[in-house]
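Hmm, how's this folded?
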Amino acid sequence: MPNASSWSASSPLLLLWEDSSGTRIFLSLLYAVLAISGTLSNVMVIYLVFSFKKLQTTSNAFIVNGCAADLSVCALWMPQEAVLGLLPPNSSSLRSAEYRLLRGGLLSLGLTVSLASHLLVAFNRYVLITKLPSVYQALYQRRHTGCMIGLSWALALLLVPLLPGLWTPRSAQQPPPRQTDGSSRYTALLLALAVLGQTALLLHCYLGIVRRVRGSA
């Protein structure tokens, strides 16, 4: 029967189990505060964009898409972490592989779509400022904008099964640590490449905007 320490190692998303009860309570309250504030702020942004026609622009469509992605983390994932941090480590409700898969999927889905939305906003500003108006209008028609938003979610859904390190169980009976370490290294490498690639594209867009503004000045 695995103890609290081995169960903590088998569930990487639950980083609270190895801490003291006071730390777990504090982090659970922090998760709760972040969940409430993040949910309210993202809902407010979505409400404002849909309420005022002047705000219904292409750039704001990508911002709303990012807010929807953030809601999957703030409104769905964080409240679960806040509750789970208050449960005992040997709670039977935490042993379900399907439940770990659901939580890991919500987290990776929200983070991936949020990163993609930030990139879409930056590229939208880049095209608007550095290209001709006709190019911008041709590229950002309503149908094309919808396809970009749908592609961000499709890409996230394709990447979710490729992140086994987020929820791969590792029990005390699993002797070969090389497989688990390889899975963790693969997950870390994939996440690092995604973040670095998104950062490089963001820098390219914003540096292009800076060069164009300086040239115009």
